[in-house]
Design goal:
Elements (H helix, E strand, L loop, with lengths): L2 H8 L3 E4 L3 H11 L6 E3 L15 E3 H6 L5 H8 L1 E2 L2 E6 L2 E7 L10 E3 L2 H13 L9 E4 L11 E5 L4 E4 L3 E4 L6 H5 L6 E15 L7 E6 L4 E8 L2 E6 L14 E16 L4 E2 L2 E3 L5 E2 L7 H18 L5 H24 L3 H14 L3 H11 L15
Parallel strand pairs: 1-2, 1-11, 5-13, 11-18
Antiparallel strand pairs: 3-7, 4-7, 5-6, 8-9, 9-10, 12-15, 12-16, 13-14, 14-15, 16-19, 17-18
Helix pairs in contact: 2-5, 2-7, 7-8
The chain binds flavin-adenine dinucleotide (FAD).
């Protein structure tokens, strides 16, 4: 690539709608390559630390964020998850040691999404870029896909019309950018609800493992949020009565419930408008892939924009998105099944299979995020 062409590219104006983990990553990846993106968000600031949706940061994300220098900060702040356990009552049916995954990083670390966002904002500030909060993209339709025009509206009602060279919609599941493109969001909503509750304990607990307790039917998952906070997540509305707390509870910090949707947009770009993260795909939290997949979108898109190859974005990302949706769909079906025979077969077979190398390696490989293509711009082994 000629320097001149690279220089011209960097002067293109980029507007990123949404300063969640995906928009912030897109901004950081562009900024470290010499671009000066503008990033706006209709919220007041990053996600609250106590209301964390995403917790799991996988090994692929740590690879992707290494060039920006963020990985060391994440690893220093997050809890490494050393084991996944499947339990039935007091009995441990399977125990997968994630440290057996070969490679530079552990398969998955736990970090509250609000903390991940704060680390991204800090890294972006080092490039002189800050998200503009309380600024929403409002667009009915985007007529000119080559030079997309959108209106930005601030909290006081002031508006501004902008026409960036590149518009990235990282504005979450209800994306205004996706709607303005007239793109559908086909897929399905599962009948099952998920319920979650986060508890802070009076003193630190063992936060180095994640666990699923199989019930008949249903399950209760236990995930670390930090050294003294655990998340319990379940398909059962009355799940809190089934929790065996490891310590005295200091406070319940967050409760939530949500219905699972599996949806993705195709293509993920039209002209110079690109969709990334939850704006482009949503699925179940089983496998902890959503934010990681969105961060991966952002990194690929920034690289392609810097290379002047952004028209390849959708074709390169769609197979990865489909792969992750398929994998999380399978996992979600496994934990939401209701048929007693199927449940009995699962409870018998899943732990048995996980004792064997190939099944265990397959699970670790996908939890680590290694089942999507390796980023070609990173030349060291993961
Ligand atoms: C219970 C639960 C657990 C999860 N656990 C995990 C996990 O362990 N690991 C994982 O990888 N993923 C997980 N996820 C998924 C993860 O939270 C999402 O995939 C992730 O937040 C997507 O990031 P995003 O930046 O695309 O969107 P968001 O985080 O939704 O950010 C979008 C941003 O856009 C802004 N915005 C919206 N509309 C506009 C507008 N019109 N103009 C300007 N700004 C706008 C919003 O304010 C928001 O800040 C979980 C999800 C749930 C519900």
């Amino acid at each position: 690539m000629a320097d001149g062409a690279g220089g011209d590219r960097k002067s293109r104006s980029v507007l990123i709608a949404g300063a969640g983990p995906v928009g912030l990553t897109a901004a950081l990846e562009l900024a470290r390559r010499g671009f000066v993106p503008r990033i706006i968000d209709d919220g007041q600031g990053p996600a609250p630390l106590e209301e964390s949706r995403a917790l799991g940061i996988n090994a692929r994300t740590l690879t992707l964020l290494s060039p920006s220098g963020l990985t060391e900060r994440i690893v220093a702040t997050a809890q490494p998850i050393a084991h996944f356990r499947i339990r039935s009552g007091a009995k441990i049916l399977a125990d997968v040691d994630t440290r057996r995954l070969p490679g530079r990083f552990g398969a998955v670390h736990a970090l509250a999404q609000g903390m991940t966002e704060r680390l991204l904002i800090e890294a972006l500030a080092a490039h002189g870029i800050a998200p503009e909060w309380q600024t929403a993209v409002v667009a009915e339709t985007i007529a000119d896909l080559q030079k997309p025009e959108v209106t930005l509206r601030q909290a006081d009602g002031a508006t501004e019309t902008v026409r960036p060279d590149i518009l990235i919609g990282a504005d979450g599941a209800h994306s205004a950018v996706r709607k303005a493109l007239g793109a559908g969001f086909p897929g399905e909503a599962l009948e099952a609800y998920f319920y979650l509750a986060d508890f802070r304990y009076v003193r630190p607990v063992d936060a180095h493992f994640a666990e699923i307790t199989l019930c008949d039917p249903g399950m209760v998952g236990r995930l670390p949020v930090s050294a003294d906070v655990l998340r319990y997540i379940s398909t059962l509305e009355d799940f809190e009565s089934r929790i065996v707390h490891p310590e005295a509870v200091a406070e319940k910090t967050w409760v939530s419930q949500f219905r699972i949707n599996f949806r993705h947009v195709e293509p993920m770009a039209k002209g110079n408008v690109f969709l990334a993260g939850d704006a482009a795909h949503i699925h179940s939290p089983a496998g902890a892939r959503g934010m990681n997949l969105g961060i991966e979108d952002a990194c690929w898109l920034a690289w392609l924009i810097a290379e002047g190859r952004e028209e390849e974005y959708s074709a390169l990302r769609i197979p990865a998105v489909k792969q992750v949706l398929k994998q999380t769909y399978g996992l979600t079906r496994l934990i939401t099944m209701k048929n007693p025979l199927a449940i009995a077969a699962r409870n018998l077979l899943a732990p048995l299979l996980l004792r064997f190398g190939p099944a265990r390696r397959g699970l670790l490989h996908s939890v680590a995020g290694y089942d999507t293509p390796k980023p070609p711009w990173i030349d060291w082994a993961e």
